[in-house]
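thought: fold this chain, then report.
action: predict
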Amino acid sequence: MEAIWEGVKEQIKAELSQSSFSLWIKPLTFSEKKDGTVVLACPNKFSKKWVTENYADLIQAKLRSAAGIDCAIGFKVARIKRKVLPPPLVANEGQLLLLDVPGKRNNGHRKLNTNYTFDRFVVGRSNEFAYSASKALAEGGTWNYHSLLMLANTGLGKSHLSQAVGNAILNQNPASRIYYITAEDFTNEMIYSLKQGRIEAFKNKYRHSCDVLLLEEVHFLSGKEKTQLELGYTLDVLANENKKIIFTSSLAPKDIPSMSKELTSRLTSGLITSIGKPDYETRIKILTRKALELGLVLSDDILSLFARNLNYDVRQMESALKCLKARSELLNVRIDIDLAKEVLGCLVSPDRTIGLKDIEKLVCKYYRVDPEMLRSNSRKKMHAYPRNVYLYLCRQHTDETLENIASSVKRSHSTTLYASEVIDRKIKTDAQIRNQIMFLNQKLDEMKK
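observation:
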């Protein structure tokens, strides 16, 4: 049930403003299911009262849709666990501890996620350079940059790669002093140190007791002049001592409001790489890997259905797979294409369906060929190549079976598979063909809206 609730939260997130979701829905956690009632834990009494009055019906409707069962919703105030503050100075561990700053993190510091390794990262065209750069930085050797800045929207793998660097370095040298922290935590710790008269200890820890700095979400520094100034000095010291630094951000430094030119210069002094949305083939790989981790063996039809429609980020794919597994287990039904479509309907808005005729019309117009030539026996390049592109696009953008796609141009099942593989290989090696396919994909995506 906990997995279902996490999936429901992702659905609600798409319907509420970011502030409303973060304030009221995100803190809610699954507590228990008792006597047909799903009980959610709220952080405090005011939150419980507000959510009950304003969001109970929405939550109940989403849960009913996701789980396929009718259940009541209840709320309770979560028990507050007593927190133990860490020691005030740096411990002799691979990962450095924060000063004793009261906060939300367990033991006052962030731990690297041991699951975030290079082996578990799915590589595709959209993230291949970021992966290679991160791995090269982690392994050392010939490296002309002391820092790496990764730019990506949430859920695309920048945190995974950042922590993979830390885990790889610790595996090579457990004595390495690695600090993984967000820009928000860095700011809060600096403010706390100033108030407690411990700013020199704060400076010493970051400037002289750190071998690797993994700083996440630097876009948070927008408008924070004092933090930007202190971080700039810290980065200068680390750079002069050839320490390794990785930054992640959703925005390029030049696009972050009220970001000083001095800090922008330091953030961009090393290597810069971006991570885009995974393409269709990469989404297939991600879904296959995540499904196996959940103990699911999915058919090619289900994987293809999810890959075509779940193109937002990795978290969206994980949510779909968890919901699929939960529905199957709770309803005691076999996972099939119909169940997958039900889950998909809860996660994505229905788009206009793209049919074989739509793709045929677009391809023929783009390559200036007659539709009948796609169905002809001609093997001339001017006819065979558009036909192969048509077959490739049909496999990516429609739910049609291979047999139906093949018969639409009077070809066999094996010919369709071969044609798709030909285009896929050319995309990897021929920039001109890659650009053509990207353009056609974009046009088909626009047609769906």
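thought: worth noting. The longest strand covers residues 29-34.
final: tokens above.
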